[in-house]
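User: I'm writing a tutorial on reading structure tokens. Could you give me a worked example: one chain, its sequence, then its tokens, then a sentence or two explaining what the tokens reveal?
Assistant: Sure. Here is the example chain.
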Amino acid sequence: MDYQNRAGSKFGGGGVASSSATNADRRERLRKLALETIDLDKDPYFFKNHVGSFECRLCLTVHQNDGSYLAHTQGRKHQTNLARRAAKEQREGKKDDVGQTGLLAGTQVKKSQIKIGRPGYRITKVRDPVTHQNGLLFQFQFPDIAPGIVPRVRVMSAYEQTVEDPDPNYQYFIVAGEPYETIAVKLQAREIDRNDDSKFWQWFDEDNKEFWCQLLFKTERDQRFSAVPGLAPGK
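And here are its predicted structure tokens:
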């Protein structure tokens, strides 16, 4: 900081600094200190917008250069907001958003996991001896499934998937179990009977790492009259 050549000062002596000069010197010292201690690449609130300016996602402020942003991080406003965010996350039981940058700051990001291939499977046609309903029995092998993970199933309509052109005559039986790839079995678009646990059930054998699932389709009569009140299911 230049303490010479000020109005009212002698040559070689230091004059009284104005308030603007003092503030400029303070911002410069804070900027240099921040450059030595802060890595902007790891700052979750630092974001460079499309016009080349720098934004603080925590305080919603815009800065023309990185020095201005670094000086802002050492200011009272930013430090107060950091303390408020830490207190809020502590109350809600959240972990620090380490490694999240830009627009992802403050949001939960699903961790990507390396897939190890598709599980083995076997599909058997079954028929209920009483109701004569047709169905399928699925057997999936997950020998290297992640600890504590139980495979999950879901029936997806043709309009929910994006792999094939939607065909209303089909639906998809989805099975997922990390770290294996999610697989789908293409089925006829017939209504699945979920009224009885003995008709639609699933079970995971943790010892043999096998996942079993059975589903039975409703008969044509049940599908046609299922919405009629007071009508008992056909036998």
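What the tokens reveal: Strands lie at 46-48, 54-56, 61-63, 120-127, 134-141, 152-157, 170-176, 183-188, 201-205, 210-216. The chain has four helices and ten strands.
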